[in-house]
User: Fold this.
Amino acid sequence: MRKVAVGFIGAGAFVRGQHLPNALRIPEIEVAAIADLNSRVLEELSGEIPLRYTTTDYHRILADPGIDMVIIGTRHEVHAELIQESLVAGKWVLCEKPMAQNEAEAAAIIAAEKKSSGRLAVGFNRRFAPAYRLARELMRPVRAPWFINYRIVNQNSHALADSSYSHESRMLYEGCHILDLAQYFLDADPIRVYMTGDRYLNNCCILSFADGSQFQILCASVGAVAYWKENMEIFAADKTIGIQDFIDMRIRGFEGEADRLFAPHLGEQAAAVAKYGFEFYEQYVVARANEYIPEEYRVDWAAMGISNPPIRRPLPPAFRLDDFHRANQRMRFFSADKGWLQSLQHFARCFLSGTKPENADALAGAKVTEMTFALLHSLETGETVDLREWYRRKGWESR
Ligand SMILES: NC(=O)c1ccc[n+]([C@@H]2O[C@H](COP(=O)([O-])OP(=O)(O)OC[C@H]3O[C@@H](n4cnc5c(N)ncnc54)[C@H](O)[C@@H]3O)[C@@H](O)[C@H]2O)c1
Assistant:
């Protein structure tokens, strides 16, 4: 079978926890080369994975005609430059979010994608989360307007540390996932957007659509460590779908449909989740997540002054957490399935078949950047922003 030869640019925490192990599991992909500035990381990886080569100079990967696709997993400030260089080199490019940090970068990426024989996928993996794909399919025939409530809230160690993240609005690097999900889920662009809250960490947003649909987002960095991060609730006509952290899906008002449980990422603890449900998942995450995380990335909440007492439910659980042990020893992060592997596999398959990917392309990424700045403008002025007008100024059609 012809495989897609993939080169990585940046092999930091997220790439080593997600894209790299996922790529190694995808039969359509050969992990061919890795570039990182850190030669110790390269040494470690070349000892673990059969690679063609590693390099501290990513230009080697871009100049290599044997590499079909690159995965960019560096920090935010160099994404735009690396995407453009990769597209000029004719590569297919999957770049982590955010695609761009300002409007000029977004415009340059759109132009580069147009000229390139390659294609761009922005790492908006939630489009591919199995629970969200099913929800989208079920909702397709349901009449508008839809009312969607999305919560993405967690106690966020980046917010407390003086990291590169703490100088940007969380909407730009995290809320962006949900802005993309909204435009993908409704297959339309919002016409008006509004945001309240503070500059960096805690926001409420409303996205209004032409058909009357409303998508509201609570994106915040406060609250108990022992509470799951994401929730989506969809209400329309006589139907409701509620999804707790990509795992527990309640499907109500749809004839013949039952509630579902989705396995965590890579099926880790799938049997226990199938048997004991969300109750097991939420307690397992809180009790065990740290055991999966490599030492250097573990969060010491107590040292940050954050209390994290164990969960105590009103009824005794039907399981003993002590009976459950890590099934996949190589897994670096225990998580719900947010569609990371599927988004990469889909992109690789599209490369092989020459079909148009469903991943977010340059225009979708640019619209998310624009939407974020429109929301920040709304925050500053206290006014609702007419997004159609902002898109028109860019020469983009609103869908
Ligand atoms: N989609 C998601 O769910 C998700 C989750 C977490 C992080 N992310 C994203 O992943 C990206 C990386 O985050 P991280 O926390 O892993 O960062 P990190 O700092 O741990 O890793 C970045 C790596 O890039 C390397 N690098 C930087 N410049 C380079 C260059 N010119 N050539 C080669 N290598 C270079 C660094 O040496 C480092 O190893 C960010 O964009 C972040 O937003 C996505």
Remarks:
- Residues 265-335 form one domain.
- Residues 53 and 212 are 53 Å apart (CA to CA).
- The chain is about 35% helix and 20% strand.
- The first strand starts at residue 4 and ends at 9.
